[in-house]
């Protein structure tokens, strides 16, 4: 069996892997694959927020604003912090100190690192997932967001893996191996 770091809550032992990283890093695809392999639930903070607020992410940004969205991220993280799950997060989850503190309570936080040029290509070709921040920033400003966030992802993570030139299965196995050591 897998030897992931566990978190003990009362008498219940939990397996938790939170995936963090910039938009387009592959958190959802890798998260689903990990959850399937480990046979634990898959959760996605963006999906949980959409369900909670009953609006799509672009609509939340448009109608309620980014700070409202960030508040929802904290609330959702707080509600799942004691669950056994693989959790895919929105790329900005590392921005607030409260979310950083919440992330630190999860057993494993894996940063999927990808260079900005690859990310931009992926985001452009992902018609199913509209990113408001991509649409509302110039290419230079968008790259700056990435640069500003990099140290935050690094600081919040317990493991860093690169997601470029690897299949979903390869990366899933790599994470299982590295986190399990
Ligand atoms: C965001 C990333 C998005 C989503 C929202 C804001 C960000 O999630 O939460 O559009 O600030 O980086 P993905 O990282 O899954 O694209």
List the helices and strands and how they pair.
Elements: E1 6-9, E2 12-20, H1 27-38, E3 42-44, H2 45-53, H3 57-63, H4 66-80, E4 85-88, H5 97-103, E5 109-113, H6 116-125, H7 132-135, H8 139-156, E6 159-162, H9 168-180
Parallel strand pairs: 2-4, 2-5, 3-4, 5-6
Antiparallel strand pairs: 1-2
Helix pairs in contact: 1-9, 2-4, 4-5
The protein binds shikimate-3-phosphate.
Could you characterize what this model shows?
The structure is a single chain. The protein is α/β, with parallel strands linked by helices. The protein has one domain (13-179): P-loop containing nucleotide triphosphate hydrolases (Rossmann fold). The chain has nine helices and six strands. The protein has helices at residues 27-38, 45-53, 57-63, 66-80, 97-103, 116-125, 132-135, 139-156, 168-180; strands at 6-9, 12-20, 42-44, 85-88, 109-113, 159-162. Helix 1 (27-38) packs across helix 9 (168-180) and helix 2 packs across helix 4 (66-80). The mean pLDDT is 92. The chain binds shikimate-3-phosphate (S3P). Shikimate-3-phosphate binds at residues 23, 27, 46, 57, 90-92, 131-133.
């Amino acid at each position: 069996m897998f030897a992931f770091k566990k978190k003990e809550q009362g008498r219940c032992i939990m397996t938790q892997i939170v995936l963090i990283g910039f938009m387009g890093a592959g958190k959802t695809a890798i998260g689903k694959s990990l959850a399937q392999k480990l046979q634990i639930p898959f959760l996605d903070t963006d999906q949980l927020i959409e369900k909670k607020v009953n609006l799509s992410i672009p609509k939340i940004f448009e109608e309620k604003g980014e700070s409202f969205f960030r508040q929802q991220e904290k609330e959702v993280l707080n509600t799942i912090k004691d669950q056994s799950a693989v959790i895919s997060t929105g790329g900005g989850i590392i921005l607030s100190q409260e979310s950083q503190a919440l992330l630190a309570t999860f057993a494993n936080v894996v940063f999927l690192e990808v260079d900005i040029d690859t990310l931009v290509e992926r985001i452009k070709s992902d018609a199913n997932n509209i990113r408001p921040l991509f649409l509302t920033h110039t290419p230079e400003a968008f790259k700056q967001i990435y640069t500003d966030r990099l140290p935050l992802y690094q600081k919040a993570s317990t493991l860093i893996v690169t997601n470029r030139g690897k299949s979903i299965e390869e990366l899933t196995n790599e994470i299982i191996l590295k986190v399990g050591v």
